[in-house]
Amino acid sequence: MWAADFATVRTVETGSWITRPRQGHGYGTEARAAVLELAFAHLGAVEAHTSYVDGNTASQRVSRKLGYVGNGRRANAEDGTRVIEHRMLLDAVTWANHRMPGITVDGASECLELFGLRADEPHS
Question: Is residue 120 situated within a structural domain?
Answer without folding.
Answer: no
